[in-house]
Write a structure and sequence with these properties.
It contains 13 helices and 14 strands. It is an alpha/beta fold. A hairpin with a 4-residue loop joins strand 13 and strand 14. Helix 3 packs across helix 11. The protein starts with a strand and ends with a strand.
Length: 344
């Protein structure tokens, strides 16, 4: 098993969610409500408008790039055009987002496979309905970075060297897989438990840890400040995805499936807009993802995938890793046809 150094005692309360662009300072945006459709829009909206009426659908998220198409959908009036009342609810931390989903405060949420599996194992009735980022390896970025004064310059030098990371997170999963691909064995992986990303980044910068596992925004910030990128997941095996999860109770009522289809249609229309002219929406990204000013104007905007179910190839390796680490309270199997989990 990997060795863990607990110099800083941060608890691993669930995964960090889809943190490919978590800001260094996690200020939280105000809730964004995208109002009810006009009568004309409602008449053209199809089944969901007729069955869902004026109900407000709440979508939870961390302030990251993964939800950019829905931020754009709000700016462009796409929800209204589909007869939908949607409120995007940003949370400052993954633990708060998990609580929001578990309590039913939000109907949908952008998170990751690991967090979803943990919630289902804990009794929360949700399923994954589409990949928001990470359908291909180049979408979103996680990686391992060394600070400006670190002696580590290549991944083979990380054997036996403490790496700053948070346990039971997607970043730990990516870190393990990158090290494994480089031939570093499990007993050579040494973890320094640093759950809070700003603390982890500063520890790396101050050379308190030789390297750290970080999301895309902090990798970009580190590169701008003279750090060395050791490895990332943008090449080779597709290691990380963020996903949209839905409360199953939302889909079980009358018109639930039609509502899901409308929500996915809005996503797809917004994806087309972003992918065609990404720079048109940089201001939306900056406003909602809280990028550091140092990289806000240069941070690369991803190409986003159309709504598609997470595949078994994406999910099963994560479940196997979680079971091996002891992170699941119950063993789960994944059904790629429904996006749901069942207890083995």
């Amino acid at each position: 098993m990997a060795k863990v150094l607990n110099r800083r005692n941060f608890l691993a309360l669930g995964g960090v969610g889809a943190l490919s662009c978590l800001p260094l300072l996690s200020a939280c945006s105000s809730n964004a409500s995208f109002g009810a459709a006009s009568p004309a829009a409602s008449s053209a909206a199809g089944a969901s408008a007729a069955t869902d009426g004026a109900r407000t659908i709440k979508v939870g998220t961390l302030p990251t790039e993964d939800l950019l198409p829905y931020w754009v959908a709000g700016e462009e009036g796409l929800f209204e055009a589909h007869g939908l009342n949607v409120e995007v609810v940003p949370f400052q931390a993954a633990t708060e987002l998990i609580a929001g989903v578990s309590s039913g405060e939000v109907d949908l949420a952008m998170t990751d496979i690991m967090v979803t599996a943990s919630m289902v194992a804990g009794g929360t009735d949700v399923s994954m309905k589409w990949v928001t980022l990470g359908a291909t390896p180049d979408q979103g970025r996680f990686g391992i970075m060394a600070g400006p004064n670190s002696s580590v310059k290549s991944i083979d030098k990380l054997a036996g060297v403490p790496i700053g990371v948070g346990s039971n997170t997607i970043l730990e999963y990516v870190m393990d897989k990158l090290l494994e691909a480089a031939g570093i064995t499990e007993d050579q992986i040494v973890v320094e438990e640093l759950q809070k990303l700003p603390v982890r980044f500063q520890a790396m910068m101050a050379n308190e840890v030789q390297a750290a596992a970080l999301p895309g925004s902090l990798l970009a910030l580190g590169e701008a400040q003279g750090c060395t990128l050791i490895a990332d997941d943008t090449q080779g095996e597709n290691l990380s995805q963020s996903v949209m999860i839905v409360q199953n109770s939302l889909l079980e009522g009358e018109g639930g499936e039609a509502l899901l289809q409308e929500l996915q249609a809005v996503w797809n229309e917004a994806v087309d807009l972003v992918n065609a002219n990404p720079e048109n929406y940089r201001s939306v990204l900056i406003a909602n993802a809280n990028l550091s000013e140092e990289i806000a104007d240069s941070y690369p905007i991803c190409q986003y995938p159309a709504a598609q179910m997470p595949t078994a190839d994406m999910v099963d390796p994560v479940l196997a890793w979680m079971e091996k680490k002891g992170y699941l309270s119950q063993q789960l199997s994944y059904d790629a046809s429904t996006g749901g989990f069942t207890v083995k």
